[in-house]
Structure formats: C-alpha cells, structure tokens
Specification:
With 418 residues, the chain is of the alpha+beta class. It has five domains: 39 residues; 87 residues, conserved putative lor/sdh protein from methanococcus maripaludis s2 fold, CATH 2.40.420; 89 residues, Elongation Factor Tu (Ef-tu), domain 3, CATH 2.40.30.170; 56 residues, Beta Barrel (OB fold (Dihydrolipoamide Acetyltransferase, E2P)); 119 residues. The chain contains five helices and 22 strands. A six-stranded antiparallel β-barrel has the order 3-12-15-14-13-16. A four-stranded antiparallel sheet has the order 4-11-9-6, with no helix packed on it. It starts with a helix and ends with a strand. One of its GO terms (molecular function) is transmembrane transporter activity.
Length: 418
C-alpha cells in the first residue's frame, strides 16, 4: 500500500510539472510570434505621394441668368383684347404678345392720312397753279407798265408843246405809278409761289407737319400691338384679356434666348485666385452628368459681408438647349495648372494652414516628421513644392492610423490596392 501511495504522488507531481511546462512552451511560442511584430511595429495603411498633371479649381454653385431681362409693357392706355402667349412659352422675335383695342387709333390714322393728302394737294396747287398764274400776272403787269411809261413820256413831250393840259399829264403819271405798283405785287407773288418762296415753303411745311402727325398716329396704332423685342422665353405674365392697362407697369418678363450667364458666389478667401478670362466647366443640377464650357467674365468689386462671398459672372458661349433661367448650377473654375506636379493627399498634411506644414512619412520602418512646402490645393490634393517625392508613403493625419502611430515609432506600411 505504501508503494502504491508513492506512485500516485509521483504521478501527480509529474502531471503538475507537465502542465507548467506546457504553459511555458505556449508563452514562449506566443512571444516568438509577437516579437517580430513588436520589433517592426504595427501594420498601418498609408497614403502615397504621386506625380501627375494637376489643375487647381475653385468650386461654387449659383444660378443661370440672362445678361438682361426684358420687362414688357404697353406705351398707351387701353383695353387688352388678346394675349396669345403663355408663361414659359418660347417666342420668336416680333411675335405678338399683347393686343389692345385699336378702333380709335385706326380712326386717328385715317384722319391723319387725309390731312396729308390735303397738304400734298396744296403743295401741288402752289407749284402747278399759283406759280404759273403768278408768271402770267407778271407778264401782264409788265406790259401794262410799259404802256403807261410810254404814255407818260409822250404826254410830257405834248405838255412841253402845250398840246395838252396839266390834268392829262397828272393822269398819265398816276397810271404809270399804279402800273409799276401792280408789277411789283405780281413779281412778289411769283417769287412766293416759286420753290423757296413763302407760299411754297408754307405749303411744304404744312405737308411735313401732316406727315409727322400721320406717323405719330400710326405709331400710336402700332403701340396697340406689343411685339417680342427678341427671341426668348416668357418667364412671367401678369396680364389677361379684358384688363385695362397703362404705361409704366411691366406686364411680362422676357428672358432672351442665346446669351446666358452663370451667377455664382465664391468664398472671399479664393478671391486672389480669380481672374477675368479663366475657363470653367459647369453643370446644371437637373442634368448633373452633362457639363458645358463657361468663361469668367465679371468679378464684383464688393464683398457680401454677411455671407463672406464675392459674386462672379461667367459667360456661356454655347448654352445647351436644356439650360433655363434661374436653374441651379455647379461651376468648377480653373484657376491654375501645373504639369507633372508632386501631389500629396490633403488628409495626410498636418498643420496645413500653419506656416510650417508637415507630413509623417514612413522611412526605414519608422514614422518620421517631414516638413514640406505646399503650393496649389484642390479637390483633396496639395501640391508639394519641396519635402516629398513621388512614391513616398505618408500616414494620414486623421483616423485610427493617426492615433496609433506617434512620431518616431516603428511602423509597417501597407499600401492600399487601388
């Protein structure tokens, strides 16, 4: 029995030592597996510095606006008898938009045209009747004057010989004076009837005045028909048949077709990057997959203090057919371009807005601080002017990787598959 007890004690002790030995082996195995990782550091996904052509853009949103809108109204007071167009309709230049009642205007035109005919008849009368009659009267007066002068001369000779009395001489002198007066009057009438004379000028002036009055009457008649000043789309209509309308009140708003502008608000911090003439690509929110060209045409000299933005306008040389007034658009303005630029993702730059930005670059298995000089920035990338080269691996400045890796720590870089 004693031998059996000793055997059991020995067996128990052996089992206990085996358990301890197994635990030690497991600990050594785990340490052997973990040691390389502890020596080489954790695996961390890194970002890469690349080299390619780079375009810096300023992104903004705004709306479509024509360079000018035409407010359509009437020029005379009247009653609307027809409005043959609807809001949203596209109309050609010269299309009828509003028609007013025109009976009185038409009657005024007829009356004015009759006055023109009367004035023209008076001009013809002066030229074709008065002038020839005046010429005939001058010839007759000239003949009578010559007879009276000869009679006066003869009577003066006779009275010298005492063949006639003083009374006969006085009669011949009066007759000669009257004949001369009649001749002067006839000559004045002829001069008045000829071109440039007072009667001719008066008749011509009356004709011109009548014609002007007729043109004014026709203009008032034309004012009863309001026509589209240019081809475009009616974006507002505030008039109906039967309305009594007056001058000075816009009744329709016409957005001319063809020319179009994009009006966008740019953050004032980007103002130094903008210049008139810069190219841009734009898209309407309703047609986001279709982009069209635009060009920066105007930069407002003032700043919107409440929004901290500046208004800019871009011309659209060839607007797409779907572009409509007041559509919402997104615009990418190209402000700079760099061929073969060295670029780093913006998320890897630490102190990006400080005077001394830097990267945490993976070099020889360690995370090392690397100061950099930055250039252009756009769409999640920064141009590196110095401090990094294409192919460098850098750690993100945010996220789990940024928290678990300190400057100088060992790290194993994992480049994500693209």
């Amino acid at each position: 029995m004693a031998g059996s007890s000793r055997w059991k004690d020995w067996l128990h002790g052996a089992r206990k030592h085996a358990a301890w030995l197994l635990a030690a082996v497991l600990v050594l195995a785990v340490a052997a597996l973990a040691a390389p990782r502890m020596l080489r550091g954790p695996k961390v996904a890194v970002l890469q510095v690349v080299q390619r052509d780079f375009v810096q853009t300023v992104v903004a949103s705004g709306r479509v606006e024509t360079p000018h809108r035409a407010d359509v109204g009437v020029q005379v007071t009247g009653t609307v008898v027809a409005v043959p167009v609807a809001q949203g309709q596209t109309v050609p230049a010269g299309a009828l938009l509003i028609e007013l009642e025109s009976t009185e205007a038409r009657a005024a035109v007829s009356q004015a045209e009759l006055a023109v005919k009367q004035a023209a008849a008076r001009v013809r009368q002066v030229r074709e009747v008065d002038a020839p009659n005046a010429e005939q009267a001058v010839r007759q007066a000239q003949a009578n004057h010559e007879v009276a002068e000869r009679t006066l001369k003869r009577n003066r000779e006779l009275i010298a010989r005492e063949f006639i009395g003083q009374a006969a001489l006085d009669d011949s002198e009066r007759a000669a004076s009257v004949a001369q007066s009649i001749l002067r009057t006839a000559q004045q009438q002829l001069a008045s009837a000829r071109p440039g004379g007072s009667n001719a000028v008066s008749a011509d002036a009356a004709l011109a005045q009548a014609r002007a009055a007729a043109e004014a009457a026709r203009a008032r008649l034309r004012y009863t028909r309001v026509l589209a000043p240019a081809a475009g789309t009616l974006i507002a209509r505030n008039v109906e048949r039967g309305d009594v309308v007056q001058p000075g009140k816009p009744l329709m708003v016409l957005s001319p077709s063809g020319a179009a502008q994009l009006v966008v608000q740019i953050d004032e911090k980007n103002l130094k990057l903008l210049a008139v003439g810069q190219d841009a690509l734009a898209s309407a929110d309703a047609y986001a997959d279709q982009r069209f060209a635009a060009k920066l045409a105007y930069i407002n000299p003032g700043i919107d203090a409440q929004r901290g933005s500046v208004e800019v306008k871009l011309d659209v040389p060839q607007p797409p057919d779907y572009l409509r007034q007041d559509m919402t658009v997104s615009v990418d303005i190209e402000v700079a371009r760099r061929p073969a630029a060295v670029l780093v993702p913006t998320e890897a730059v630490r102190g990006i807005d400080s005077p001394a930005p830097w990267l945490l670059k993976v070099e020889d298995g360690h995370a090392r601080r690397q100061p950099v000089k930055l250039g252009l920035r756009s769409r999640g990338w920064c141009e590196v002017l110095s401090g990094a080269s294409a192919g460098d691996a850098v750690l993100p400045a945010t996220g789990p990787a940024a928290l678990q890796v300190a400057e100088g720590a060992r790290v194993r870089a994992i480049v994500p598959q693209r």
